[in-house]
Design goal:
The protein is α+β, with helices and mostly antiparallel strands and 364 residues long. The chain is built from eight helices and 15 strands. Helices cover 26% and strands 22% of the residues. The strands form three sheets. Strands 1, 6, 7, 8, 9, 10 and 11 form a seven-stranded mixed sheet that branches. Strands 5-12-2-14 form a four-stranded antiparallel sheet, with no helix packed on it. Strands 4-3-13-15 form a four-stranded antiparallel sheet.
C-alpha cells in the first residue's frame, strides 16, 4: 500500500475549484440555470502536515437521546479534553437555528463512480434526484456536485440552492468509463484507494481557503480499506501511511469540513478505528477508510439497510451538520513532531452526545 504518496505529489488533486478563490467566496447562493462540471488540473504540494498555529478550533454538534440538535448550551457547559487533560477555552460561539453562521456555508456532494458499480450508481442517481426535488427544489444549503471518475475529479464550481437545476443536471452527465479494472485484484484496490484519498485531500486543500464550515457528503461505500490484504508492510511504508493519516486528520479539521457518508455502514463498527494511533506501526488500512474518516471529522456514517431511501439518508446527513457550536483552545506544547492528540468534549447536561473532531496531530 502506498498511501504515503498522499504526502508527496498529489497527482489528481483538485486545484482551482473551477473558479478563482475570490469568486468562490463571493458567489451568492442563488439558482444556477446551467450547472457544469469542470476538470481539475494537477496540483502539487503538501498540506496539513501538523497544526503549527498552536490554536485548535473545534466545530461541534450536540444532540439529545432522540437525535435532536441541542442549541441552548453556554460556554460553561463544555469541557474540552486534549489527551485527557482539560483545556482552557479562549473563544466560544453558541449554536442557534436563527443564526446562519451556525450552519455549514455550503454542501458538496461527491458522486463516487470509482468505487461504485453501474447498477448501484443508477440507483444513487435516482435517489439524489428525489432529494434535490424535495421542498419544491429548494435546498437548505448552497450545494455543488463533484464527480469522481477513474480519470480524476470534475466539479460544478458554483454552489446553488436550486435543487431542480441539479436534478436535471444529473441526467446530462455521461456514464463513466472505468480504466481501473477489478480484475487486477489487489493492485486495483490500491489504485482506487490512492485515487480516492488524493481526491479527498485535494478537496480539503481548496476548502481550507474558503470561510465557514463545509459539509462534504461522499456517496457510495467508499474506497477499499485494504483490510483484505496481508498487513505486511515495511517500516517506511508504515511511516508514509502514518503521515497520510496525519494530513487527512488535520486537513478535515483545518478546512472545517464535516465528512458524511450515507452508505458507509454502521457507526458502531467503524468507531473501533478511531482508537489512538500514536506510532506508525499502529496504522491499519481501515484508519483511512471513508466511514472512519467521516466519524473522525465529527460526521456520520449511515447503513443503507436501516436508513431507508438515499434521499432520506442525505437529509439526515445535512441535519447532522448543524446548528453547530464552535470553540478555540490553545494546544499543549508538543514533545515531538507529528504528536497524536486525542480529543473529547464533554457537556454538563447528562444524556447529550457531542460530534466533533476525534484527534489532531501537533508538532514543534
Amino acid at each position: 500500500m502506498r498511501i504515503g504518496q498522499l504526502c508527496g505529489v498529489l497527482a489528481v488533486l483538485v486545484a482551482a475549484m473551477g473558479c478563482a478563490e475570490a469568486t468562490c467566496q463571493n458567489a451568492p447562493p442563488n439558482p444556477v440555470p446551467n450547472p457544469v462540471l469542470l476538470p481539475r488540473p494537477t496540483q502539487a504540494g503538501t498540506r496539513f502536515a501538523t497544526d503549527v498555529t498552536g490554536l485548535v478550533r473545534l466545530d461541534m454538534v450536540v444532540t439529545d437521546a432522540a437525535g435532536k440538535v441541542v442549541t441552548d448550551l453556554g460556554p460553561g457547559d463544555f469541557t474540552v479534553l486534549d489527551n485527557g487533560q482539560a483545556q482552557k477555552v479562549t473563544v466560544f460561539h453558541g449554536a442557534s437555528p436563527d443564526v446562519p453562521e451556525t450552519m455549514p456555508a455550503q454542501m458538496i456532494l461527491v458522486i463516487d463512480t470509482v468505487n461504485t458499480g453501474v447498477i448501484q450508481l443508477g440507483l444513487q442517481r435516482a435517489g439524489m434526484q428525489r432529494y434535490f426535488r424535495q421542498n419544491g427544489g429548494h435546498l437548505a444549503l448552497p450545494t455543488s456536485i463533484f464527480w469522481l471518475t477513474d480519470a480524476g475529479l470534475k466539479v460544478q464550481p458554483k454552489p446553488t440552492t436550486d435543487g431542480n437545476a441539479l436534478a436535471n443536471f444529473l441526467d446530462r452527465i455521461d456514464p463513466t468509463v472505468h480504466t481501473i479494472r477489478n480484475s487486477a485484484g489487489g493492485q486495483a484496490s490500491i489504485e482506487k484507494m490512492e485515487l480516492s484519498l488524493r481526491s479527498l485531500l485535494g478537496i480539503l486543500t481548496n476548502l481550507e481557503k474558503q470561510p465557514g464550515r463545509k459539509l462534504v457528503i461522499w456517496t457510495g461505500v467508499g474506497w477499499p480499506s485494504m483490510a483484505e490484504l496481508p498487513h505486511v508492510y515495511s517500516a517506511r511504508t508504515q511511516q508514509l501511511n502514518y503521515d497520510g493519516l496525519r494530513e487527512m486528520t488535520n486537513g478535515l479539521r483545518e478546512a472545517r469540513v464535516t465528512l458524511c457518508t450515507p452508505d458507509g455502514g454502521d457507526e458502531f463498527y467503524s468507531r473501533r478505528f478511531l482508537n489512538p494511533v500514536t506510532t506508525a506501526d499502529q496504522v491499519v488500512g481501515a484508519n483511512l477508510s471513508l466511514p472512519a474518516l467521516a466519524l473522525s471529522s465529527g460526521g456520520i456514517t449511515l447503513n443503507p439497510g436501516n436508513g431507508g431511501q438515499l434521499e432520506t439518508r442525505l437529509a439526515q446527513s445535512v441535519a447532522s451538520a448543524g446548528p453547530f457550536y464552535s470553540l478555540v483552545f490553545k494546544a499543549p506544547a508538543a514533545k515531538h513532531a507529528a504528536e497524536y492528540h486525542q480529543l473529547a468534549v464533554k457537556v454538563s447536561r447528562p444524556g447529550l452526545k457531542v460530534r466533533t473532531n476525534a484527534a489532531y496531530f501537533a508538532g514543534p
